[in-house]
Amino acid sequence: MTFTALDHQHMAHALRLAERGLFTTQPNPRVGCVIAHGAEVVGAGWHQRAGGPHAEVCALRAAGERARGATAYVTLEPCAHHGRTPPCADALAAAGVARVVVAAEDPFPQVDGRGIEKLRAAGIAVETGLLREAARELNVGFFSRHERGRPWVRLKLAMSLDGRTALGNGESKWITGAAARADVQRWRARSSAILTGSGTVLADDPRLTVRLDEDASLPPPGRESVADPARGQGEGTAHATDWTEVPAAAFVPPLRVVLDRRLRTPAGSHVLDGSAPTLVLHGDGAACADDRFARAECRPVAERDGKLALPAVLAHLAARECNEVHVEAGPALCGALLAEGLADELLLYVAPALLGDDARPLLHLPALRSMDERWNLRLLDLRPLGADLRLRLRPEA
Ligand SMILES: NC(=O)C1=CN([C@@H]2O[C@H](COP(=O)(O)OP(=O)(O)OC[C@H]3O[C@@H](n4cnc5c(N)ncnc54)[C@H](OP(=O)(O)O)[C@@H]3O)[C@@H](O)[C@H]2O)C=CC1
Ligand SMILES: Nc1c(N[C@@H]2O[C@H](COP(=O)(O)O)[C@@H](O)[C@H]2O)[nH]c(=O)[nH]c1=O
């Protein structure tokens, strides 16, 4: 398939619009749509929240009669089913769109090629795959959930230059500075769940909430600059060309998830304060009968070798429509996820400080006998944040 420079330009615009849904579409994917006649954009929109209009509908509303004979650029295959809203493939056909360019096919079982078939059956020319990788990256968790049956798992760790994550006595606040910690808030915000272990709850009493106001000057995660912070024009509809802050009312707070096999989380812990939806996963032998857990949901999950079975944990989170899981845990849980091949990405914040021999390591991993067995990671990007550095890495297959 060959696409023109103009096709690329419109799809890139649609992707930037889709990105506006970064913090609000959960559990739905982030999707953008641009409708154009040649270089002229006649309608543009993005999906803002589950239950709200899809990107195509927002763009069609903006285009009105001018959608007839136009090309629609959509970052995800238009839906073919009656969900919370009617099928977008039907809406595009009814509006008389002549051509649809799709970035990525939708693996959602009720779509899965049917949207494209429907469009073709209506006589519309459909082309797929333009900027597919970028569209899949934006919805990495959505694709993971539907294609692998588990969420995308991102481990976040703050460490010193000598690879330490807390002092020997457990003290860890703070290793990294304010800019790095504010960046963490953005990654928390885009996630469906924030996962931790009982060890971190006991040592740190973390809140694990999203506090985006800690440094509002930062661009969104994964973006190095914000070229044009122009505002949108009404819900999900805009001709603006870049990312913008989302209305606080549309924000979907991530689920706090604590792995606590023996229910050691103390009464009065921040994670039990009801300030965010909270799930405590425990072993079969424990029961959440006491008042400690009045503001949290408790669920048993399978155990394996005296620990909670991590594949069962992730399957449970996928069943609850969690797309991206942000892990803020200690070396035990983070190491176990990596060793079991369940960590998809690492966000490492490196502070220019040394914490010494007695301090806690980054990850508990099995000892290796040969260099062939080592875990190799691929560096995706590197970014300074104040005095610290952020490394984003993915384990090599
Ligand atoms: N610098 C940083 O970015 C961070 C540092 N920390 C530091 O880490 C330290 C705590 O680390 P750590 O003790 O390793 O705690 P973790 O947060 O890794 O929690 C580990 C506990 O989780 C429970 N658990 C349940 N299932 C599993 C499983 N399958 N695999 C592993 N653990 C499981 C276990 O307890 P049980 O069997 O009772 O359920 C286990 O002891 C603190 O000092 C804290 O300050 C923590 C977070 C981030
Ligand atoms: N010490 C340390 C971090 N620690 C992480 O932050 C958690 C506290 O979260 P909250 O209570 O929501 O602010 C704590 O339990 C641990 O997971 N993070 C960082 O970015 N830099 C740091 O230096």
UniProtKB/TrEMBL annotation:
Substrates-to-products reaction catalysed: 5-amino-6-(5-phospho-D-ribitylamino)uracil + NADP(+) = 5-amino-6-(5-phospho-D-ribosylamino)uracil + NADPH + H(+); 2,5-diamino-6-hydroxy-4-(5-phosphoribosylamino)-pyrimidine + H2O + H(+) = 5-amino-6-(5-phospho-D-ribosylamino)uracil + NH4(+)
UniProt pathway annotation: Cofactor biosynthesis; riboflavin biosynthesis; 5-amino-6-(D-ribitylamino)uracil from GTP: step 2/4; Cofactor biosynthesis; riboflavin biosynthesis; 5-amino-6-(D-ribitylamino)uracil from GTP: step 3/4
GO biological process, one term: riboflavin biosynthetic process
Residues of the active site: E56 (proton donor)
Annotated stretches, region: Disordered: 213-239
Binding site for Zn(2+): H54, C79, C88
Residues given in the record as substrate binding sites: S172, R188, L208, R211, E328
Domain named CMP/dCMP-type deaminase: residues: 5-127
Free-text remark on how the cofactor is bound: Binds 1 zinc ion.
EC id: 3.5.4.26, 1.1.1.193
Binding site for NADP(+): A158, W174, T200, D204, G330, P331, A332, L333, C334, G335, A336
Co-factor(s): Zn(2+)
Family to which this protein belongs: In the N-terminal section; belongs to the cytidine and deoxycytidylate deaminase family. In the C-terminal section; belongs to the HTP reductase family.
Name of this chain's protein: Riboflavin biosynthesis protein RibD
